[in-house]
Amino acid sequence: YSWTDIGEGMCRSLVEGNVKLRHVYLPVATISLKQEQEIRINENRSQLWGLNPMRLRDISFQEDYRSGNDNILEDFYKPALRASKEYWRAVGYFSSSALEAFGSPLGEFVKNGGRIKLITSVELDEEDVKAIESGADKQSIYENRLEKIIETQFADGVGDGVSRLITLLELNRLEIKIAVPKQGTGIYHEKVGIFFDDEDYVAFTGSSNESHNAFYENRECIDVYPSWEAPSRALRKRRHFEEVWNNTDVGVEVYTFPEAAKNKLLRVKHKGNGTGACVQPINKWRHQEEALKLFLAKERGVLNMATGTGKTRTSLNIVKHLVECDLIDTVIVTTDGNDLLDQWYFQLLSLRREIRDSKLFRIYRDYSSYKDIQEFLFNTSNAILLVSRAAGVKRDPLVTALRSISTVQGQRTILIHDEVHRLGSPSNRQRLTGLSDHIRFRLGLSATPEREYDEEGNQFIQHHIGPEIMRFELSDAIQRGILVPFNYYPLRYELTDEDRKRLHDVFKKKAAREAVGNPMSDEEVWIELARVYKTSRAKIPVFNDFIKENQHLLQRCIVFVETEEYGLEVLEVIHQYRADFHTYL
Question: What is the rounded distance in angstroms from the CA atom of residue 55 to the CA atom of residue 197?
Answer without folding.
Answer: 7
